Fold:
Amino acid sequence: MLRNKEKPHNSETETNKILFKKPDLEYMLPRFNVVDMHFHSKYSDGINKIPVILKHAKKLGIGIAITDHNIVDGAVEACNQQEVLVIPGVEITSTEGPHMLLYFYNVEDIIDFNDKYLKKNKGKTPMYSTKLSVKEIIKIGNKYNCLIVFAHPYSFGTTGIYTKHFSHKRKHDIIDSVGTFEVINSENFHIWNLMAGVKAYNLNKGMIGGSDGHTLYHMAKVLTYTKKKKFTDMSKAREYFLDQIKLKQSRVIGRDVDILRKFISTVFKIKPNLRKMPGLIMKSTILKIPFIANLIK
Structure:
């Protein structure tokens, strides 16, 4: 009886471009190359160190993209091994607000990108906005062999590209220059993921998904997967996987986490802004709640 219930799910995994279902790793791993394309480490606002993240990814049998906010150290560290497929990435906070995901084909390029462009444009901490505009991030990214993606296009505040901050014309020009959308993000609200998926489909964009994980609990809640191909060389596996996304051959499966975990993650994301609020607001009732106060210390 259980097998009959699972069969439609597995059939949909083979055919759907976007599937709002819990990933069935037992079914997927023998058939697909599978990667969680959005994960944060202790180098930015994640909880776990790189060795712990890699150990858990290996246990699950998946690849992982390290995409810390405005810092590449974790991605570089994670690539110093050959047991887990790692996509070296970075989530850049533009000066206007929207977040951009850049995924590099090799470690040398992400180091070069950091040394030439990211270091000098970073904010006070990795969680602050950079001095780079969305257009500048795209222009610089196009200098490298990398995949440029709009992170959570519809999202909280100004972190998605579909923010009211941009005029219609400006938004259109920017969106036209990027080929890939993040269509499921486990920390995003379901309606926003749906909107991103519909928009990506209508605009014929490539698609990725990721947990946007900050703890091991999040890992593999959302996965990007492609047709199975085995490699002994991690660089070849990385190249194949990113090429498949660019060729619009990737699929995305997963679902968002519960509302409490969304709330906790949102507090972590906005705490740099909370620190900059006037003292009177900081002493308001909500910030006196011990749980909230501890999160923004």
In short: The chain has two domains: 2-257, 259-297. Residues 271 and 296 are 6 Å apart (CA to CA). Residues 1-6, 272-297 have pLDDT under 50 and may be disordered.
